[in-house]
Amino acid sequence: MYINRSVLLSMGVSMTALRRWGTALIASAVFLFLLRLFFSPSLPVKEAPHISPPPFRKEFIVSALQNDDNSWLREYFPDWKANIYVVNNPAAPLTVPVNKGKEAMVYLTFMIDNYDNLPDIMVFIHSHRYQWHNDDPLYDGVPILQNLQIPYIMSEGYANLRCVWTLGCPNEVDLRKLDSDKATEIAYPKAFQELFPGRPLPDVVAVGCCAQFALTRDKVRQKPRTDYEHYRKWLIETPLEDDTSGRVLEYAWHIIFGKPPVHCPTASECYCKTFGLCDMDCGMNQCGKRWPFPPSASLPEGWPTIGWDGEARSAEELAAMRTFH
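-> structure tokens emitted (325 positions)
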């Protein structure tokens, strides 16, 4: 509100009184402002809308044959995408350019074709649920994958899915031997130089067999796509037999993904970190009979309800075997 000073003077109000009145008005305004600032109820703060993080992408990359039964992956892992590569069917939705090098051709083909759209975490496996080399008392792939410690994989980038040292550790590929009769040891020096030109040849290469492992997207992308194309080109063009070329890469994956040539963590450390099994009685290379050495690489028909000698096993017996620590 504006009041004309001349009007007030004509009414006999002195200049001194006007000044005092003005000062009082200013002081009152300041007081009211401070009172409202400190004692009025606070207005509700509008929170920013919650934005859910994008879904965590987890995928299996599976090396399979035409008639393999892969239904166990859908049954037990419905929240994982399964990329089933049928290596012996060129018309399959997912297949390989050449059926050569065992699972290595599948793994490299996936990395090359999906390099720009890789999932957060990938597990590279063979197709059968029960396999002699699965690190489980019944050689069962389900508990292995169910126990897989995803936070550890995300922090580590690469983890082998086998902890027991038999087979693969501590010196599976011993390049110090001058008279080796093992096809992989004979082929490895030349193959290593072709795969990793300019890199010094190690004396020994070792890692738990058998080419099943977990990777993160970031770990794969630490190398350019051209590296994986180079490895696959070598696999296609090498004159080595299928089994030998596949085994060369079986004992090179850990090197590709940043581990030293001999990558053999103690069994207790591996089981605890990779699978969360931390209460077992372990030596350096194994934990009791967590992985019993099989009489054959071919499991009996009907395994595990049918044992090695054709004996039937009850549900109670199987449960006891599964809970071995």
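The mean pLDDT is 89.
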